Amino acid sequence: MHFWQWLNFIIVLLVFGAYLVGKLRLVALRRAGRYPMPGQAVMADVERLLKSGERSWAIRCYCEIHACSLRQARDAVAALVKQ
């Protein structure tokens, strides 16, 4: 394989690895009861995730509840933090 093919292969592996780590973390949070099951998220979950220091998961949960973009969720969660 040429250099660029190897580089592309490594990049694909890194992206897939990051995706897999995120999914495994989500499963672990759900099993621990720290992240709601699909379709069961409420704003209390967002607030609880924020209080436990899981800001990125709070943003993801907010997106799930309100079906909004990542930017809108990030801004809304930032507003919750300021309150």
Structural class: mainly alpha
Shape: elongated
What are the secondary-structure elements, in order, as H or E? HHHH
Helix content: over 70%
Strand percentage lies at under 5%
Kindly give the count of domains. 2
Distance between the first and last residues' Cα: 55 Å
Radius of gyration: 16 Å
Note down, in words, how this protein is organized:
This protein has 2 domains: 1-32; 36-83. Helix content is 76%, strand content 0%. The chain is built from 4 helices and no strands. The chain has helices at 3-31, 43-51, 55-66, 70-82. Helix 2 (43-51) packs antiparallel against helix 3 (55-66) and helix 3 crosses helix 4 (70-82). The longest helix has 29 residues, at 3-31. It is elongated, with a radius of gyration of 16 Å.
Q: What's the arrangement of secondary structure elements?
A:
Layout: H1 3-31, H2 43-51, H3 55-66, H4 70-82
Helix pairs in contact: 2-3, 3-4
